[in-house]
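Ticket #341: bound-state structure for NAP.
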Amino acid sequence: MSTADQSSHGTDTGTGTDTDTDTDTGTDTGTDTDTDTDTGTDLVTGAFSHIGSHIARRLLDGGRKVRTLTYHPDREHPLRARVEAFKYDFDDIAELERSLAGITTLYNTYWVRIEHDGTTFDEAVRHSRVLFDAAVRAGVKRIVHVSVSNPSEMSPLPYYSGKARVERALAESGASHAIVRPTLVFGSDREVLVNNIAYLLRKLPVFGVPGDGNYRVQPVHVDDVAEICVDQAATVQNVTVDAAGPETYTFIKLVRLIRDAIGARAVIARVPVPLMSFSARLLGVLLRDVVLTREETDGLMHELLVTQSTPLGRTSFSAWLDESAQTLGGEYANELARHFR
Ligand SMILES: NC(=O)c1ccc[n+]([C@@H]2O[C@H](COP(=O)([O-])OP(=O)(O)OC[C@H]3O[C@@H](n4cnc5c(N)ncnc54)[C@H](OP(=O)(O)O)[C@@H]3O)[C@@H](O)[C@H]2O)c1
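RESOLUTION: The complex was predicted; output attached.
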């Protein structure tokens, strides 16, 4: 069943945002992954976090050993006992290399969603470069890097230009690599955007969507992203692949679907962007979080969470919604509490 909204929007983001949507065809050959030297151990950054935990679980279930780098090595998590955890320290290169020694594939999910309290995108780009270079020196055979759909160094949005700079740092490291570019990822208990839309629809009488709401999103299930990532470890070429789901919705349709699935009664209102930004800041004060940045709104409205390639994700958002409606948005997912407090 597909209730996807066949919006007639064109492919031009029309914003001055330069999106490098071309994906490599796999002709750029990297270092061969020699199966004889497979150590059976992989490292997933953020294995107790969102996308990383689903990659780690898939690897463990497939019989591989998993290490992680994280800022929260002692976080309570179902995978905690099965994963060897090291703490990120991008200033201690020797320790970083030690944590990467004996690793066949590094799956990298490290990134920051927002700039806050001295944490910046520039710093995250720098850290990513340090991580890739340490992996090469430690003899890691392949790097599978989780990026985002439509990154571009020309983008006026620092999140997207930062992600493009990280992709360049990876290419410049000389590692055999795959870049996986997800759209909007749903389906994890640590997911933020869809969960918090549901939470606010449950709590508020009116839910605002920025602008006309007719810009599109193409959500992809977290297990499909994890599968795409793990598949990319088995190949030897340097490739870039989009990770997008089979259904595309206008944003307002997506919000309506969530509201109807969870049985909320909120009125969905189209709100001018400045008023939306003001309301999001106000909500942020009440929830002690950064609810939605102006930059995230711009990315959404410029359709950066849609791809032009054939979708690799198979899981239907609408079908998942029907199964998850009871619990979705039951609790607020607080970004600042997770990463800054
Ligand atoms: N979530 C989505 O919908 C989505 C969509 C498209 C692309 N992506 C990309 O997918 C990758 C992983 O995203 P995710 O949602 O799975 O991220 P995440 O779970 O929040 O975090 C991934 C890793 O980055 C670390 N990290 C996150 N925020 C940080 C901060 N403020 N300061 C320091 N470290 C921080 C986490 O540390 P801990 O291990 O300590 O938690 C974790 O190791 C990112 O590159 C993101 O751009 C995500």
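RESOLUTION NOTES: Residues 35-183+221-243 form a domain with the Rossmann fold fold (CATH 3.40.50.720).
TICKET STATUS: resolved
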